[in-house]
Amino acid sequence: MVRTASWTSRRRGKRVTSEIPLIPEEPKVSSAKRKISYVILALFLISAVGCSRVSKENYDKLKVGMAYEEIVHILGSPNTCSETLGTKSCVWGDEKRQIKVSFIASKAIAFSNKGL
């Protein structure tokens, strides 16, 4: 789509008309480059799943009294968190492999794991 703009030139006093692209065209990407991009993306996603921080080794690093930020540093961002009556419970992982930590005043008070 092209929009036409016109204005009067100050130097020559003539009416000038110019075509200005409303939406610039995206560069064409060859199918080979697109396939390579998909393969790289797939490898990245597979490696991210394989390098899960939800492990027995990381679970063993957790201690009562650790701050929420310290646990996030070890396990990464939690998948879910919920708060009830001043107690915050966060879960890392999925249904099969998970670590659950309970906090009061941003300090860890209890841990549990599943599938480690």
Question: If you had to describe this structure to a student in words, what would you say it looks like?
Answer:
The strands form 2 sheets. Strands 3-4-5-6 form a 4-stranded antiparallel sheet, with helices on one face. It has a two-stranded antiparallel ribbon with strand order 1-2. It is elongated. With 116 residues, it is of the alpha+beta class. The termini are far apart. It has a domain of 59 residues: Beta-lactamase Inhibitory Protein, Chain:B, domain 1 (2-Layer Sandwich).
Question: Any descriptors?
Answer:
alpha+beta, two-stranded antiparallel sheet, single chain, 3 helices, four-stranded antiparallel sheet, Beta-lactamase Inhibitory Protein, Chain:B, domain 1, 116 residues
